[in-house]
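Quick one, tokens below:
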């Protein structure tokens, strides 16, 4: 009886200590969506139960090692016992009940995080080796970054063009594989204005680690301005215009766009050969093409290579570049990327 009480006290004390140390969990990123609430709640509950079970197993083990160690001069065997039916039933039924209860809670969270809303913003998300693109059918626009208005539920329709990828923004807590030939869905209600990143969470080839795209949660008014800018209907407010962007700004924008649109996953900046030709010294370079002809990489060629990449393939490379940059990049953005390419010597 003495040992029982000791073990119970030890387990309770260690459990309380670990629960105290892990609450709130310091390893989680910012929770930036409404769906993060129920997900974190369920995760926390799992964590608490796991901590208790861990302490139960290891606490009893630790106690037994210390309390029942062999005494000097004791050479006898331990007491023999066969089984304990009551204990076995208990340790089968109790965990079963806990697991069933957690499935019930999990179903509740699933229902909460997949529930539709009336004013959802539909975004078609396309994943491919190795970039993301985003279409907004309600507005007729597309982009290489995912911009969402805060407080409005987004209904993401996820597609894959080649292999399985996985849409994951850790701050939103939800993750969904994209599967070729199927449409998958995710509902996210961003709550925290800020800049995040979607990363691919399924190993999908050499560019997997670089398969990132910016995710911006904007105040609704700013989101509307962004939509108007992409539509080309935005009018600068009186007096707020100022002069246009300088050459340096344009190069910086081009560099940013090259990162955001996944270009860097396939085009190296240091001359090494990746899936696509290196960008080092690309401007003005003479390229041998697949059909035996050759071409000088001038502005016109670079523009064609971005908008219609399959038309003039450089010898030694496959036709792998996404063909939709003409849709997801504005003409001014393509200009900026070309301005950036000119600076890469
Ligand atoms: Cu796409 Cu990993």
């Amino acid at each position: 009886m003495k040992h029982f009480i000791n073990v119970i006290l030890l387990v309770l004390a260690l459990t309380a200590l670990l629960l105290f140390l892990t609450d709130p969990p310091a390893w989680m990123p910012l929770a930036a969506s409404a769906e993060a609430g129920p997900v974190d709640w369920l995760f926390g509950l799992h964590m608490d139960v796991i901590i208790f079970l861990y302490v139960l197993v290891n606490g009893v083990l630790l106690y037994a090692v210390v309390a029942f160690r062999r005494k000097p001069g004791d050479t006898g065997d331990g007491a023999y016992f066969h089984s304990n039916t009551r204990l076995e039933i208990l340790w089968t039924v109790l965990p079963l009940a806990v697991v069933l209860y957690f499935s019930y809670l999990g179903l509740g969270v699933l229902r909460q995080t997949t529930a539709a809303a009336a004013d959802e913003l539909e975004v078609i998300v396309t994943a491919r080796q190795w970039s993301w693109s985003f279409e907004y059918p309600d507005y007729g626009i597309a982009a290489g970054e995912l911009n969402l208005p805060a407080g409005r539920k987004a209904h993401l329709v996820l597609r894959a063009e080649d292999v399985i990828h996985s849409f994951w923004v850790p701050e939103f807590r939800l993750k969904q594989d994209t599967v070729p030939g199927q449409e998958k869905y995710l509902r996210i209600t961003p709550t925290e204005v800020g800049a995040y990143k979607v990363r691919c969470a399924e190993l999908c080839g050499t560019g997997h680690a670089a398969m990132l795209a910016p995710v911006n949660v904007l105040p609704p008014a700013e989101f509307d301005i962004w939509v108007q800018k992409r539509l080309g209907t935005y009018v600068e407010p009186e007096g707020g215009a100022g002069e246009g962007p300088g050459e340096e700004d344009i190069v910086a924008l081009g560099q940013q766009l090259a990162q955001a649109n996944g270009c860097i996953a396939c085009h190296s900046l240091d001359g090494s050969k990746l899936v696509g030709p290196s960008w080092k010294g690309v401007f003005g370079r003479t390229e041998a093409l697949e059909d035996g002809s050759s071409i000088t990489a001038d502005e016109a060629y670079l523009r064609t290579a971005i908008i219609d990449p399959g038309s003039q393939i450089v010898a030694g490379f496959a036709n792998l570049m996404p063909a939709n940059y003409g849709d997801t990049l504005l003409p001014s953005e393509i200009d900026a990327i070309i301005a950036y390419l000119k600076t890469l010597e």
